[in-house]
Amino acid sequence: MKVKVLSRNPDDYVRETQYDIQRVPRNYDPSLHPFEVPREYARALNATKLERVFAKPFLASLDGHRDGVHCLAKHRTSLSTLLSGSCDGQVKVWNLTERDVCALSKHTKDLCVEIVVRFCGTSFFTVGDDKTIKQWKMEAPAYGEEEEPLNTILGKTVFTGLDHHQKEGVFATCGQQVDIWDEQRSSPIRSFTWGVDSFSSVRFNPVETELLASCGSDRSVVLYDMRESTPLRKVIMKMRTNTVCWNPMEAYYFTSANEDYNLYTYDMRHLDKPVMVHMDHVSAVLDVDYSPTGREFVSASFDKTIRIFPKNAGHSREVYHTKRMQHVICVKWSSDNKYVLSGSDEMNIRLWKANAAEKLGVLSPRERQATNYNQKLKEKFQYHPQIRRIARHRHLPKNIYHQAKELRVMKAARHRKESNVRKHSKPGTVPLVAEKEKHVVTVVK
Amino acid sequence: MAAPGEAAVDDSHVGTQKRPPARYWQESEIEDKDGNKVQTEETSSEQSVQPKNQQKRKKRKREVEESDGKKMVVSGQEDPFPGPAPIPVNRLQKFKRKEKVKKPRGRKVRLRDMITRSEEASKMAQKQAARFDLLLPEDAGFLEGDEGEDTCTISQQDIADAVDITSGTKYFNLKLSQFGPYHVDYSKTGRHLLLGGRRGHVACIDWPSKELMCEINVMESVNDVKWLHSEDMFAVAQKKWLYIYDSNGIELHCIRKFNDVLRMTFLPYHFLLATASATSFLQYLDVSVGKEVAAFSTKTGRLDVMCQNPHNAIVHLGHHNGTVTLWSPNQKEALVKMLCHQGGVRSVAVDKTGTYMVTSGMDKKLKVYDIRAFKPFKSYFLPAGASCLSLSQRGLLSAATGDVVQVYRDVWSTPVNKPYMAHRTRGAVWGLHFCPFEDVLGIGHGDGFTSILVPGAGEPNFDGLDANPYRSTKQRQEWEVKALLEKIQPELISLNPTDLGEVDQVSFKQRHQERVEALGFDPLEKEKFVPKYKKKGRSSAGGIERRKKQVAHEDQRDEIRKTVEDKMKMEKEQKEREKKKAALFVNKSALDRFKK
């Protein structure tokens, strides 16, 4: 007779001393783990609920400006530094870790329109209502020293926008025309005009560094190449574009923030139709900024909210608002992809988490593993109705909620009317127009 | 030109070609040749795969040599184990979750990409799990007789003497003749034993250490006992009500909604206690919140045969008319009714993978069903008929006939004519239960309780996060919290537990029907033409009819036009396709491009 009976030595399964961690022998045999899918579903449901519980995006409010914050600028080399300019011409350099001002300077009496940090990070440029461009040192003046700009250029017309080249000592301003300036000279090296209208914003492409985009008040977005003497092309839309932002990863995509409550992502090569129309705001969109990964962007709106959109989705994944935040004028996504900064009318700069439910600080390996696992589960079951409902739910202020509802009703009515017209007219006379095609008037080359 | 590397091998001092080194599966073949069949099968299947791989690799290697002209390895020795270690095919099969998904054709690039990536990930997981299998510490038990010796003739005492002392102590007998026939239940980890005597005696024992946790007499007849999710609580079906006690024997609850319960079964992942009563009620109690989830009147008389399918948490009930019915808490009617026996069903058991169901009936037959297809598989005749059945984790079947307990092996794969083991107890057997993760069968009978050794019954390697027999109190508490958090809702119980992970491809028709039901009317239904009432005598009956006819005629014409258009389109497409095909098959010459 040959016999073997299961006989385990408890020492192999129990920890030796109480200072050890417990032994957990594993066996991955699927038959020992029944109900895999329903259990994962239960976990995914819990993870989704917890995500909503932990979604506390608001981190801090930086107060100190004495008028509405009009522009923000990220530092090119330092994560913790932020520059802000307000409507009273005050420029402040903030230290975000201490949430405190480390330097301040006075640009004009009236309005600081735009700030931009030089690529080296040691100085920054400002433009204001007073037709001047000023260059400032980043550090605060020493004791007894007067706060004075390094350099001042007097322009002929009012400047409304400013951006600096990524690598060279060249910057662009816009106003009556788009000017390209050399830092060493006091007159522009090139100026572009197309029609007689003024421009509200200008942006350099971060990848194809010689390219520029600007938005004009004739409802157009104009593209330029710095090496050429004439603009490249122009797309005219139904309503005015406030700002544009280039995708930092895909050089040919840019997103424009429009007055008609929408954002449009364009492919530079095919301007006749936007790649994606991003809807959700219920008032004019004032500013937009891409995340450094190029997968999402944040937009600031006159409706007192900021929203985060995935670059290829028509609707936002997140909306941030507080009771006290008024019209949001400028917004920036931090260079470490973790925070969003917004400046609004009521003189405050707010710091938000880019991912509302994310835990900040150092994660222990087990914690990180659990977070990753939960993230994967949420992705896996995201289309199940119960989970989708919880994941999508956001609380909105009453007026925005009602306004969104009203817009929905209006849109449905328009759609209904159109389909009725189509039904009662000769087939083919009332064509179906896609949403993407509705907003572009023409493309001029 | 001969590669210098090859020359070095030829000139080596060994002279002859070395044999390829032995791999672990070859050793296992030699060792386990007389062991179980599964192992040999595994080796053969895997060996068939092996040479192919090697050939491929060799070819690749040669290519490298030829292209470079010299060898990569400095010593001139070839790597005896090139590439990752091969994994036996059937071990990979064990961890296979799903068939390959058919990728969508056409322009759905992102979806296709996503499917490819997830498939890659699951493949990697499968491989890793299969590799990990090698590291499992324990092997299953076995019992083999000498030549000419039947294993069923080997007595328990002989086995207990032959094995080590600790295992030997697992064969024991509790003489409890006073409170008569006993029901038995082991906890999920297999550490704790619950005994319920017909005349009111209830005892919990930490049986490996033989430590008595509590012992009470409920002063009422006891119909069934069951552990709940942990060894902290157990349920006792008493004469009138259902009671829940804690492990100290303190009565926690008396549940008056559950009366005359005869049989109970606990669904551990749903935290549901399913009970079958003498009044033919099947009831589900959610023990985590203490609510009755569902109660159905089965209308089939006294229910004293019950078991659960551990794979999908469906409850099986056996009835007096020979049928077995399958129940879920979501449906008032039985999901399935199977006629299994002529005469009443005496006992039912379902295996761990949810593939086989074993039933025994008053017609003295023991039948094996494939319950995925609901088809009979095997039928055996037992002279005395089996009163109790129990299946172990590794698929051993124990059947009690009177006071004899027989254990069978492989009842579904091979026709069995002899039991694997047999044991005679002192009284009629009342309850049977295999202890999880141990080679032990607990028998409750008229004269108490007997624990016998059944080598090869238990799963040798447990999973520490699921059921850990050696867990500490802290670990148990942690497990309890986790288990409660991932409690599966009773609505998710269905015949196929993986349904939830699959795409719900409801047909348009079905969806439309649901919509019609929800709305109360058919939104796609065409409005019936109602002629407008016209004055001045133009709405005469004839006029109305004429107008109706006109409209009907117009509709018909539209329809005809549409079908004709469709037909034309189809034909055109067909022609184009043929043209393309023809263009492909025609021999092209280089000069064709100048043709007009």
Automatic annotation (TrEMBL), chain A:
Predominant cellular place of this UniProt entry's protein: nucleus
SMART domains hit by this protein: WD40
SUPFAM superfamilies to which the protein is assigned, alphabetical: WD40 repeat-like
Matches recorded under Gene3D superfamilies: YVTN repeat-like/Quinoprotein amine dehydrogenase
One term under GO cellular component: small-subunit processome
GO-annotated biological processes: maturation of SSU-rRNA from tricistronic rRNA transcript (SSU-rRNA, 5.8S rRNA, LSU-rRNA); protein ubiquitination
Localization terms from the record: Nucleus, Nucleolus
Alphabetically ordered keywords of this record: Nucleus, Repeat, Ribonucleoprotein, rRNA processing, WD repeat
WD repeat ranges, renumbered to this chain: 62-96, 278-309, 321-362
Domain Sof1-like protein per the UniProt entry, residue ranges: 354-440
Pfam families: Sof1, WD40
Entry similarity comment: Belongs to the WD repeat DCAF13/WDSOF1 family.
Official protein name in the record: DDB1- and CUL4-associated factor 13
Annotated organism of origin: Gouania willdenowi
Gene of this entry: dcaf13
UniProtKB/TrEMBL annotation, chain B:
GO biological process, one term: maturation of SSU-rRNA from tricistronic rRNA transcript (SSU-rRNA, 5.8S rRNA, LSU-rRNA)
Main location: nucleus
WD repeat locations: 338-379
Compartments where found: Nucleus, Nucleolus
GO CC, alphabetical: 90S preribosome; small-subunit processome
Coiled coil stretches, renumbered: none
Superkingdom: Eukaryota
Positions of the UniProt region annotated as Disordered: 1-89, 535-563
Membrane spanning stretches: none
Repeat recorded as keyword: yes
Record Pfam families: BING4CT, WD40
Alphabetical list of PANTHER family matching this protein: WD REPEAT-CONTAINING PROTEIN 46, WD-REPEAT PROTEIN BING4
Function according to Swiss-Prot or TrEMBL: Scaffold component of the nucleolar structure. Required for localization of DDX21 and NCL to the granular compartment of the nucleolus. Part of the small subunit (SSU) processome, first precursor of the small eukaryotic ribosomal subunit. During the assembly of the SSU processome in the nucleolus, many ribosome biogenesis factors, an RNA chaperone and ribosomal proteins associate with the nascent pre-rRNA and work in concert to generate RNA folding, modifications, rearrangements and cleavage as well as targeted degradation of pre-ribosomal RNA by the RNA exosome.
Protein name as catalogued: WD repeat-containing protein 46
Encoding gene per record: wdr46
